[in-house]
Structures are given as C-alpha cells and as structure tokens.
Write a structure and sequence with these properties.
Blueprint (H helix, E strand, L loop, with lengths): L1 E3 L2 E3 L8 H6 L10 E5 L7 E2 L2 E2 H7 L6 H7 L5 E8 L5 E3 L3 H13 L19 E5 L3 E7 L2 H11 L6 H4 L1 H4 L2 H13 L7 H11 L6 H16 L5 H5 L2 E6 L4 E4 L5 E13 L5 E4 L7 H7 L9 E2 L2 E4 L2 E4 L7 E7 L6 E2 L7 E13 L4 E5 L3 E4 L7 E12 L4
Antiparallel strand pairs: 1-21, 2-3, 3-6, 4-5, 6-12, 7-13, 8-11, 8-12, 9-10, 9-12, 11-14, 15-16, 16-17, 17-22, 18-22, 19-20, 19-21, 19-22
Length: 396
Amino acid sequence: MQPLSGTVQRYDWGTNDAIPALLGRPADDRPVAEYWLGAHRSSPSLLGSRTLVEHIGAVPAVLGRRSREAFGEHLPYLMKVLSARHALSIQAHPSREQAIEGFARESRSGTPLDAAERTYKDCWPKPEVLIALDDFHSLAGFRDPHETAALFAALGVSEQLASVIGPLTERKGSAALAEVFLDVLSLDDDRLHLVNETVAAAMHHRYDDGPVGAFARTALELDAVFPADPGILAALLMNRLLLHRGQALFVPAGMMHAHLRGTGVEVMANSDNVIRGGLTNKHIDVSELVTVVDFNPWLPEVLHPVRTRPGVLKYATPCSEFEAWRMLVDEQGGPIRVPGGGSARILLAIDGACVLDDGQNTLQLPRGRAAFLSADEAEVYASGTAEVFGASSGIR
C-alpha cells in the first residue's frame, strides 16, 4: 500500500472548481478538466519520488500474474476524475482488432506518433465507464432515425434540411444513420446555413416540455460553445442521457458519444485512441470514424452498481482491461475487504476518510487522496467512514 499522487490536466472544457475542491487545493481562473491516476506514459502518477511507470518497470510482479500474461508489463487501465463545463468532442473508440490494424497502418505510412493528424496512438482499445458524482449529461448512441426525423419536424426545419436528413425516413436503420452522419459532418460553407437555421428554430422551442424541448436545448447548448459547427447536427442524431450520482454509462468500442457537462469518475483501458467527428479543434477523421462506429440505433443502458458484498458495489462491464467498483465504508458496518486481490489496484477517496490495513501496515486515505495496492496485497481492509472508488484489472 502506497500513497499515489495523480496529475492534473487543464483542457479548455474543464470546470474551475470541482477537481480542486476534491483535492483540497485552491481554485484559480484556469480550467481543471481531469485528474489522472495510473501509469499513462504521457502523464504517470507518482509513488513517492518515482513514477508508477518506473515502479512497475522495476517490480512488474505488482501487476499480478494473469494481468501480465494478458497485457504484458503495463497497467491495463487508467482512472480519472473528469469535470466538464461544456461538451467534449463527438468521438468513438476502436475495438482491439481495429486498433492493432490502424496503428500498424499509420506506422507503416511513417506518420509520427505525435503528429496532429495521427489517429491511432497505440494498439489498444479504449472502452470506458463513466460514474457520475453529480448530475452528468451525455450524448450516447444513435436515436431511432424515425424519432429523430420527427424531432426535426417538430422544430419546423424538415423542409430546409430535406437534402440532409431525408435518408432518416427513406432508408433503414444503420444505413440511414451512416449516410446522414457522414453528410452532416461533410457540410461545406455553402450548406453551413443549415446549422444556423436549425439553431434559430430551436430558440422557439427551448422552453417546450418533453423530447422536443430537450432536443432544442441540446442544439442551443452546443451552439453556444461551437457556433455553426456541423457537429451540432451530428450530435442531434444521438440520445441524450442524464446520469444521477452513482449511476454509470459504459462506452464500448464503436459507440458514438459526447459528454456534455458534469463531474464523474472514469475508468478506461490505458489507451489514447480517440477518433473524433466534430465539436473540437483537434484532428477530425470522418472517414476512419465511419469504419469504426456502430450505426445501429440503440439507447444505451444506464448502469446501476450491483452489491457484491456488504459495502462493495460493482459496475458490471464486459472488459478484460478493468473492473470498476465503489466502496461505502461505514464505521457501524465494520472493516471492508478491498476487492481486486490478485491485481494491481488504485483507490480514490471521494468523501470522508478511511484507513487501509494489510495486517502489518496502515495507510490513511482522506478525501481526495489515492492509493496504489499491488497484486499480492490481497488481504487489505478499509475502516472508517468514506466513499471510495476503486479499479483493478478485469483479469486476476
């Protein structure tokens, strides 16, 4: 058991206060978007005077035998606190097979790893689970195309957008969505007025109840940050989800998504492979996105954690790279055994304070502090009163 110090990432879309408040640090006028806990090579966490990457390199057994067999001598996951004041880019992540092929293709072409136009930074997939710490708004997956066509009609822009959204009702399912998505992201200057007309129409419905009002407010919310961006029309093809505290969204390979606002804990495979389609100044690779994205309409499930034993709530995902869980430590309930033995684990106290005890040593874990536990530290117990999020490899 060792204290783990994460790294702060200051992206423009971050909030100013949520992460500093969690960490007990003063806020300033610069956004703090993410707090990383893990062994990401571009920004690894610290264990004392050396990085977690260096620690694993020196003592790879801390990862656990089965994790090393599956993923090599790398921590396969990354934990983050994410806090967004406005929308992140529209994006999707590749499967493992797509990542391996795409990384090899770009490497053969000679595209430098740090090039702005590089899409595949590594050969890993990047499934994610986002667990809300407050009300968290996100766009995820594609709405049924006929429902989307009806919402555009309710705004009164069906005629103006007929050349773009016509396939929503003229074609079926995934083919309809793929054609419209590709078309709206390829709008040239002569057709950008379609975005502005949609936003202007949304102004008249911003106070409506029900789906039409939510649809209109989404258009206005995005236009306030990305005026006249074709990505607004692409975003309007997607489902809007609201997660309450403790609820989660799992993002598998191929699912189009764009987090809008809120604060949450995110656990993901340790990869940089993000394929963007809009609402960003970063590299947009529409042609690659179309090959990766699942255009079948579906409404993603809001995940509720499953109680696996007293005080332990697990977020079930099909990932081998990670497991995510939450511990509700209560003095009245007695010590809780920390899950994930047999794998390297990262713990982060979100509220309260607890003490970790492995039978020989103890480690204080107050709010905003993190710890790293090695695979062989199987018998670690937490006591006190705290809410603690944890992650481990999905293979132990």
